Amino acid sequence: MEPDVLVVGAGPVGLALACALRQYGVSVRVIDKAAGPATTSRANFVHARGSEVLDRLDALGDLPEESVRAMTITTYAGDRPMMKIRFGDPGLGTAAPPMVISQARVEARLRERLAELGERPEWDKRLTALGQDAAGVTAVLADGSTVRAGWLVGCDGSASAVRKLAGIGFPGVKVSERFLLVDGRLDVGTDTDLDRSGTSGWTHPEGVLGAMPMPGDQWRLLAYDATFRDDKPGEEQIVERMRRILPERTSLTGLRLHDVTWASLFSVHRRLADTYRDGRILLAGDAAHVHAPFGGQGMLTGLGDAENLAWKLALVVKGRAAERLLDTYQAERRPLATQVLRGSTAATKVNIAGSPLGRLLRDKVLMRVFNQAWIQRWTTYTTSQLWVSYRRGPLGGRGRKPRPGDRIGDLACERPDGSRTRLHAELRGKWAVLGDQAAFEAARQRLGDQVVSLCAAGPASGLAMLVRPDAHLACKGGSAELARWLDGALG
Question: pLDDT, tens digit, for every residue of 134-154?
C-alpha cells in the first residue's frame, strides 16, 4: 500500500516528522541509507523548545531523568576563570527542561514512540532517483525497488540525496578550519578540578578547547585545531592529538582520556537551501540548513521544522487544506534558519579568533560583558528558541499580544469535565480552542476531531484563542473570527 508520505532519513528530524504525521492519522514510511541506528552522540544538547516538541509528540519520556543538567559554561585562560554563564528559565512558560543528552538517545526514544504509533524505520534503503507528477512522487532505491508516495520529505542531512536529486541549490561558505571532537571518559587527578555541573572552556592562542559532561560519566571534548593538516585521519590519530593538546590548552596535567566512543574531525560550513519545497518534495533539518554547532541550534531547529511541517502536510493529505498551505512552511521556518546561521557564524568567529586584536576583544571585553546577569538571561532566552514567533509570516497578524503567530506558553487549563491539564499536553496531534464553545464548534467543522476544547486558568482565562498544534496562536476571538481565519489559512 502506498504511504501518504515517504520520509527519507531516520535521524531526529525524520523520526519527529513521522511521529507527528502518525499522530494526525497520516500513513508514513521512513527509509534510511544507513545499515542501522546511529550509536554516536553527534548533537548533545536539547534546548527547552526541542524538549517541548518531544513532549508534544509524547516522546519525551524519561529523557530528562537520563540527561545531565549542566547549565553553566565557565571559560578559563589557563587555570584562571574569566567568565561564567549560567543558563536558567527565561520565564516563557515551559514545563520542558533543556537537556544535555546524546542525540542517539533522542533518536532511540523517537523510534520507540514511532513504534507505538505503528511504524518502524527501514534501514539500508539508499535513494538513487526521484520523479514526481501531479499525483505523487516515485522514489527509486539502490536495490532497484521503487516507492510511490503522495509526498516526500528529505530529512537526510547536509549531504541530502533528496535535495540533490530534486536539483535544489544549497549555497554557502566555509566558516572555519578544523575542529577535533572526541567523546570518552576523563580520569581526573587529585590536583585537578573539572566540574561536571557545567561545561568548561579554555581560550588559547592555538585555539579554544571545551569539555562538556555527558550522561554515563562521559565527556565531550571539542578543540579548534587549524594546524591539524591530515585530510583523512583515523580515529586513533584524532584521539592522540586531543590527548596531546589537552594539557597544553587547559594547564590541567592530571587528565587522562580513555574509553573513547567516538572521534571525528570537521570543518564548519554555513549553507541554506534555495527553497524548502519543489512540488511534492520538501526538505527539513540539515537537508535545508547547516551551520556551526555553537549554541546547540542544529537539532533544535530541525525539530521545529518537523513540527511546523507536519500539521500543514497532514491537513493537505486529509483534504482539509489547499496545497498552498505548504508554502507557509518555508515562509515561517526559513527566516529563522537565516537568523540561526548568522548567530552561529558570529559565535564561531568569536571562539576561533586568531589575531591578537581578536583575542584581546574576546578575552578582555566580551568576557566581561557576558558576566553580566542580563546578558546571561538574554543568552538563555535566545538559545532556547522559545521566543520564535511567526507573526510576520503569512499566518501571522497584528494587534495586542499575544498576536497571531506568537508562541503560547504551557498554560494551566481545564477540560470540559473540570479535570486539570496543561495546554501543551493536549496539543499532541490536536488543535486547541480556549474559552469559547461556539468557536470550538466552528473549529470542528473545519478540523474534525483534531481539535480539543479547553478553558485556561489564571490570567489567561479571559482569552478566547485557537492554538495551532505547534503551540503558536492561530487567532483570537469568537466563532466568526475563527472561521474567517481558517477559511483564509486553509483555503
Answer: 999 999 999 999 999 999 999
402 preceded by a cis bond (ω within 30 of 0):
yes
pTM given for the model: 0.90
pLDDT in tens, 173-192: 776 668 899 999 998 765 56
Rounded Cα distance between 276 and 273, Å, is 7
Q: Which of helix, strand or coil describes residue 15?
A: helix
Of residues 80, 274, 89, 259, the one with CA closest to residue 172: 274
Residues 86, 102: Cα–Cα separation, whole Å: 21
Closest CA to 164 of 126, 118, 214: 126
User: What is the C-alpha radius of gyration for the chain, rounded to an integer number of angstroms?
Assistant: 23
Exposed/middle/buried for residue 118 (C-beta within 10 Å: 0-12, 13-18, 19+): exposed
H or E element: which one contains 488?
helix 479-490
CA distance 359 to 362: 5
Query: How far, in Å, CA of 455 to CA of 439, rounded?
Result: 12
Give the model confidence (pLDDT) of 305-319 as tens digits: 999 999 999 999 999
Positive or negative, the Cα torsion across 293, 296, 299, 302? negative
**With the C-alpha atoms ordered 111, 431, 2, 157, is the resulting torsion angle positive or negative?**
negative
Q: What share of the chain is helix, strand, coil (3-state, %, to 5)?
A: 35, 25, 40
